[in-house]
Amino acid sequence: MKKFVILFLLLSITLPATAAEWVKIGNNLYLDKASVRYAPKNRTYKAWVKEIKPKETILYFNEYNLKEKEWRGLDKVTMDNKNNIKKREIPNHVGLNWFNVVPDTNSALEYEAVKKETQIPLKVLEQELHID
User: Fold this and answer.
1) Model pTM greater than 0.90?
2) 33: helix, coil or strand?
3) Which of 25, 80, 85, 100 is the most buried (most CB within 10 A)?
């Protein structure tokens, strides 16, 4: 039994822990800084966004094309106020539509926040990847 407890403690110490880092980007709108990731296949960024409403919270997992100023939704999770999942919507991944970032909307706030969180400035990234 002691060996099991020691093994469990060692594994729990060495496993990486990832926690959300929600930052406010708009009225009841938050970006998880820890989830912003570069997707080299499409040369895009992906991130979780949270919108808090009076009776529910909606989490969006979106993809952002910083060069073309576009976004698309990959996952949408609706939760009640006790964080129980009420509904999950996953769009068909074949032929997902890209949408233009519309000024003065949540998509514009998300786009700017993701752009700010990227580690490499867009111009440097374009030069390194030879993006036209």
Assistant:
1) no
2) helix
3) 25
